[in-house]
Design a protein that fits this description.
binds adenosine-5'-diphosphate, single chain, 19 helices, six-stranded parallel β-sheet, alpha/beta, Rossmann fold, 2 domains, ten-stranded mixed β-sheet
């Protein structure tokens, strides 16, 4: 058999670890790109050069041939440039879209009036970057609403270009809850040059343009980030209005569980945590717990389990359930809780008050802090993730590797990566509850706390989790297989 051909892939993403991250999308685009590159494929990644990108330690250089480029967006002419850098921890060259007018702002995402233009620019700049480089991708890989107009652009504004004659488009949905819905008066600025009729007509009549929906309509193939979520979004409860369209595309939809970048998330080699440890020698984990609790003003005792939460504080993550269950449980049982995250003010207020009500037992750190995230994974005994829905979720998989037993709800990637503990059989890796209600979470937390008191059983469940392999080596190979099938279809 002839050697399999190496693929050419263009990946456009609004987040990329460690340069720009609000959640799992950043980890996935970065680790997937690194995997594809290490497997010998030619992958070109484009990311906006946000003001918040910490350029220290990264050598960002302008590309002369890609400087002061112009893009027509309706009546607006936008100037931008493309820089290059090396993705930290790899030798992959990545590309950064420099346009201070759009990206020189505080956050990665904004509620500004021109939010759509920021990501239309990213999408079209990725296409035009390929043109200028004479790079004919086998696969154009879009991620979430921010780059999901690419499939339509390739069929309309750029359809004339033979460079893309054999290009196939893949859209990965990381979270269907964010669709990029904009008022229809932005239509001109999309610069679809005569292809406006391809947009969803009922939406247009209602005065809406939905970016993710457009991607669902025009991508050659759709993936999402776990097999269970791929099934869930076909139904009304989880499909967020796109379920009908997705059902029509069920033959071109697949769920691929995200992988974990074990170069970053591994207690044996983690340079951020106080002490490394392994399944064979867990002494370092107790040191991590003590150090974490001390730093967070929590009172340590060997018998007191420490629960950890790292999360965007939004409805999706089950914070309401925590609000309904955890205060009374704290009053009844001895455990401590450390929380890292920010988000909706009502949830931030809840954790602030909880800390006040239980000094020495609850600590809430508001904000984004990668080092603390590593400390919590390493130092906690139990990780709490009672999500209402969870496309994949990464922290539960990090938790498994760090010997931190996850409590999860049976949804999306949580259902696909955590297996119910069965003490009699000595199997399972965490505590899984099914119904999104107070009784469900209370049962799961009580079960986990009881299990913690049974040291022998606990150690077994911890060991089962640590032995799991969710590396990108496996999951990345699934993307390659899919990309190959698509490019062989030509
Ligand atoms: P989502 O993408 O929905 O936010 P995931 O579990 O897929 O959820 O990914 C979350 C990622 O973001 C993880 O790597 C997690 O450690 C990280 N993260 C979330 N909130 C914070 C925070 N406040 N500080 C540091 N890292 C965070």
């Amino acid at each position: 058999m002839a050697a399999q051909k190496k693929l050419k892939i263009c990946l456009a993403s609004s987040e990329l670890t460690p340069l720009a991250k609000t959640g799992g999308l950043a980890d996935v685009s970065s680790a997937l790109a690194a995997y594809l590159h290490s497997a010998g494929h030619d992958v070109r990644v484009l990311l906006p050069r946000y003001a918040r990108i910490d350029a220290s330690g990264i050598d960002i250089k302008p590309v002369e041939a890609l400087s002061d480029l112009k893009l027509q967006m309706g009546s607006r002419e936008q100037t931008y440039s493309i820089d290059t850098a090396t993705l930290p921890g790899t030798n992959l060259t990545i590309y950064l879209l420099r346009c201070p007018e759009f990206f020189g702002r505080d956050g990665i995402y904004t509620h500004d009036h021109d939010e759509h233009l920021r990501f239309v620019l990213l999408s079209r700049a990725a296409i035009e970057m390929c043109q200028r480089m004479g790079f004919a991708p086998d696969i154009f890989h879009s991620h979430d609403w921010q780059t999901s107009l690419i499939p339509l652009y390739l069929r309309s504004t750029y359809a004339w270009d033979k460079l893309f004659a054999n290009t196939r488009t893949v859209l990965t949905i990381h979270n269907i809850g964010y669709q990029g819905r904009f008022p229809a008066y932005i239509l001109d600025e999309l610069h679809l040059t005569g292809a406006e009729h391809h947009l969803h007509q009922d939406d247009l009549k209602e005065g809406v343009i939905n970016f993710l929906k457009t991607g669902v309509l025009y991508a050659d193939f759709i993936t999402t980030v776990s097999p269970t979520y791929a099934r869930e979004i076909l139904g009304e409860d989880y499909g967020m209005g796109l379920n009908e369209l997705l059902r029509a595309r069920v033959n071109t939809l697949v769920g691929i569980l995200n992988g974990v970048d074990y170069a970053e998330w591994n207690p044996e080699s983690d340079t951020l945590i106080p002490r490394t440890y392994s399944a064979e020698d867990m002494r370092g984990k107790e040191v991590c717990k003590q150090t974490l609790m001390q730093e967070m003003n929590l009172t340590y005792s060997e018998k007191r389990p420490l629960l950890g939460i790292i999360s965007r504080l939004v409805g999706q993550k089950g914070i309401e359930l925590i609000d309904n269950v955890v205060p009374s449980l704290l009053a009844r049982r001895d455990f401590a809780l450390v929380v890292l995250g920010s988000g909706e003010p009502r949830f931030e207020l809840f954790f602030t008050r909880l800390q006040q009500a239980f000094p020495g037992r609850v600590c809430y750190y508001r904000g984004f802090n990668n080092r603390l995230a590593h400390w919590i994974e390493a130092g906690s005994d139990i990780f709490l993730m009672p999500s209402l829905y969870e496309p994949c979720g990464l922290n539960q998989m990090y938790s498994l590797k760090y010997g931190t037993v996850p409590i999860v709800r049976e949804t999306g990637g949580l259902a696909d990566s955590v297996e119910q503990a069965n003490i009699d059989a000595g199997t399972g890796t965490g505590i899984v509850f099914r119904d999104y209600n107070e009784a469900g979470l209370a049962w799961a937390m009580n079960t986990a706390l009881d299990l913690y008191d049974n040291k022998q059983a606990w150690q077994l469940i911890v060991a089962n989790g640590m032995a799991k392999d969710y590396s990108w080596q496996r999951q990345g190979a699934r993307y390659v297989e899919l990309f190959r099938q698509l490019s062989d279809m030509q």
